[in-house]
Each structure stands twice: as C-alpha cells, then as structure tokens.
C-alpha cells in the first residue's frame, strides 16, 4: 500500500529479527477484504508505503537465538493475529489487544505484512505452528484468518446445542461461522447471503436455510421461518453498520450477537431502542478480534486433518508467483460473482 487508494510494489530492507522472532518467506498467500478496507476505505487511518497482507503459509528463513521450537526450513502456519504473549493483556485473556486495542493485529496494520519476499513474525514460538505434512496449502492459508475469525464469531455468540442461529454474511468468514455453528451443535442455521457459490457451500457446511437479502427484508424472512420467534444466537460476518439494527430485531431476549465483521467506514452503528427492550432486553452484542496464536492454529489444523472442516473448498481462484498478489488483491476489490477466496502459490 503506497497510500490511500494506491497500491504497488516497493523495495524495502529485509526485516531484522529479535531473539524471540522469526524471519519467514511466503509459500502461499491470500488477500483479504480487510486489505481492501485498509487501502480503499482508509479504515485504520492513512498508511504510507506499508506492505499489505496477513494470511500466509511460510517457510522459516532465520530464527532468533531464544526461539525453541522452530528452525530454518520449517514450513509453518502463520497466524494473522500475532500477539505479544508475555503481555498483561494476554494474562487477562485478551492477547489480541496486547499493546492496546487491536494491538495483536500487527501485519498490515502498523507493521509490514506478508505480501513480500520476507516477513517478520514476533514471538515465533507463540505465533507460528508447524504445517502438518501433506496439508492442502489452501486449507492451511485459510487457518491464518478465515477459519479462526469465523469460529471466533461462533464463540462470541456462545452458540450451544440446539440453538437456532443466524449467520449474516456468507463470504469466507461467514462460511466458516456456519461450519463452526454446525460443529457447536446448532439446530437451524439461517445463512444470509446471495451469491450462488457461497449459498451452495453454506449448505454443504451446515446451513439449513438460506435467507437471500435480495429477495426481501431479512427480518421478515427470518420471522417467517421462525414463526415470529427470532433466533437464539447471531454471528455477524458481513453487511455494514446498519446490519446491527436488523440483528437486534431478530434476536430473542436473552440472546447474543457475536460480531467479527470489520466495520471499515462510518462513525456509529444503529441499535433500535424498542427492539433492544428499551435498553433492558437482555440482548447482548459482543464484537471481537480473533485471538490468534499457535495453539489456535494447531487446533484448527486438527479439524482439517480429521475432515471436520474443509476450508480449501472456499478457494476459487489460484495464482502462481509473488507478482500475482496484486491480481488476486484486485479480485477481492472487484468481487466477481464466482469469487469466494483467491490463493497465491509462491513456490
């Protein structure tokens, strides 16, 4: 990212590493909608000459003197969120906010990202995980962000056995939220989206009903499906600032909304007063950044290895060569109808 609304290639020095850090080179990369928000919405503020990207599978090139579990030439899963695990925030169970709110989100936020020949990973023992032998690189790259973020929405919404659940937005994160809700034991899963390939995959991942927002107000549609009762839990993985208004309306008293949608524009969200019980409806809204880190990557990798989830099915476009990152990024910006997620293979 050269500046707001402008991307291009830039020459930079190879990053220096500290005693707990690692230097990696990418072997697989994936652009994200967050990258588009960063460049074209200025969502996190003006950035100049910052390398984009936070979704990668890598190979270790160099490790710091105090790194214990990784060595040169190891193939690794790289978490998009790389907290400082010795921080007070981590001890408070909010590692993703180490160094301040959203401070664990370093790549392409306030530190150069992974769309480069080499990238730096802080706290390597805490933020890298060994790439399981034979794992599909598309699935592995989705473990960086799409899978853990979708699952984070499920955790924030506190989905339990038998819950009726709405997942608003079925792009890659929402699709993983559908899969996570199914694993958690949700009964009816109402997936809100309109793209046919996303609809088909949502059904495969566990959605029981599709709510197409292009065919009418989603509030009316979900009330019709639930006999006017609404749903127990909601994951917001897409939409905009106004989506909260719809979500609060369809949520039962005592229910919970887990938001993992990146709100890249505007100053405020809307919460409808009456449907929120005039402030007393016991309708909770929790927005969170996924925690990142090695343990989460390892656990999600197990779900891939055992066939519980199939994130590789979200990869619709494959490019070869680091120079193709810009093409893949533009796909995420323009979002053709057949796109779910692009992947760039560097080797």
Textual characterization of the structure:
Helices cover 27% and strands 19% of the residues. By secondary structure, it is an alpha/beta fold. The chain folds into 2 domains: 22-145 and 290-345, Alpha-Beta Complex (Quinone Oxidoreductase, Chain A, domain 1), CATH 3.90.180; 150-287, Rossmann fold (3-Layer(aba) Sandwich). The strands form 2 sheets. Strands 1, 2, 3, 4, 5, 12 and 13 form a 7-stranded mixed sheet that branches. α6 (172-183) links the parallel β6 (165-168) and β7. The radius of gyration is 20 Å and the shape is globular.
Key structural traits:
347 residues; alpha/beta; Quinone Oxidoreductase, Chain A, domain 1; Rossmann fold; 2 domains; 11 helices; 27% helix
H and E string: EHEEHEHEHHEHEHEHEHEEHEHE
Largest sheet: 7 strands, mixed
Radius of gyration, in angstroms, nearest whole number:
20 Å
Beta-strand fraction estimate: 15-25%
- The figure for the number of domains is 2
CATH topology value of the largest domain: Quinone Oxidoreductase, Chain A, domain 1
Overall mean pLDDT stands at 95
What overall form do the CA principal axes indicate? globular
CATH homologous superfamily of the largest domain, by name?
Medium-chain alcohol dehydrogenases, catalytic domain
Q: How many beta-strand segments?
A: 13
Beginning-to-end CA distance, first to last residue:
23 Å
Number of helices: 11
Structural class: alpha/beta
Measured as a percent range, the helix fraction is 25-40%
CATH architect. name of the largest domain: Alpha-Beta Complex
CATH class assignment of the largest domain:
Alpha Beta
């Amino acid at each position: 990212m050269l500046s707001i609304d402008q991307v291009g290639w830039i020459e930079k020095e190879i990053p220096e590493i500290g005693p707990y850090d690692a230097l990696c080179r990418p072997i697989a990369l994936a652009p994200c909608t967050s990258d588009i928000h960063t460049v074209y919405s200025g969502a996190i503020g003006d950035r100049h000459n910052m390398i984009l990207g936070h979704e990668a599978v890598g190979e270790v090139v160099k490790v710091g003197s105090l790194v214990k579990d990784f060595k040169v030439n190891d193939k690794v899963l790289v978490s998009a969120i790389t907290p400082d695990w010795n921080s007070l925030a981590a001890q408070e169970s909010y590692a993703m906010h180490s160094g301040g709110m959203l401070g664990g989100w370093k790549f392409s936020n306030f530190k150069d990202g992974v769309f480069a020949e080499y990238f730096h990973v802080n706290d390597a023992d805490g933020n890298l995980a060994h790439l399981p032998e034979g794992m599909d690189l598309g699935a592995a790259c989705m473990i960086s962000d799409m899978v853990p973020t979708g699952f984070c929405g499920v955790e924030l919404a506190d989905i339990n056995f038998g819950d009726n659940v709405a997942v608003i937005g079925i792009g890659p994160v929402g699709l993983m939220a559908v899969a996570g809700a199914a694993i958690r034991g949700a009964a009816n899963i109402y997936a809100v989206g309109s793209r046919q390939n996303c609809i088909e995959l949502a059904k495969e991942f566990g959605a029981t009903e599709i709510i197409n927002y292009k065919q009418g107000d989603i509030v009316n549609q979900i009330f019709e499906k639930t006999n006017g009762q609404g749903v127990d839990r909601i994951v917001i993985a897409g939409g905009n600032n106004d989506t909260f208004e719809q979500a609060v309306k369809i949520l039962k008293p005592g229910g919970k909304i887990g938001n993992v949608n990146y709100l890249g524009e505007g100053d405020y969200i809307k919460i409808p007063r009456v449907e929120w019980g005039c402030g007393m409806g016991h309708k909770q809204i929790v927005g969170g950044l996924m925690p990142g880190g090695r343990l989460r990557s390892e656990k999600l990798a197990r779900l891939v290895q055992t066939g519980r989830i199939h994130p590789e099915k979200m990869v619709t476009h494959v490019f070869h060569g680091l120079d193709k990152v810009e093409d893949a990024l533009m796909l995420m910006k323009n979002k053709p109808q057949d796109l779910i997620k692009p992947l760039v293979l560097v080797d």
